[in-house]
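=== RUN LOG ===
request id: a7f3
mode: sequence -> structure
chains: 1
length: 73
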Amino acid sequence: MALRSDSDLTFDAEYHPNAVEGSRVVATGWSGYYTGPDRTEVADVYDNCFVMEFDDDERCSQFTEWFRRRPRS
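=== RESULT ===
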């Protein structure tokens, strides 16, 4: 599990690897963006899918992202 939040609390994100085959990884997760004086109002939430390819030095050499904004309630 990878959870990230910035110091101003304007976003949270969580991603997990779903498939690993050789040097290719597929990960899915979400990103949430917040507004308001105390950063508690949800502005947008996106569901994401990342496909990454890593080189021999384990650096990401290719990156593709698909995303979709969740409908607002």
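=== NOTES ===
The chain has a mean pLDDT of 88.
The chain has one domain: 2-67.
=== END ===
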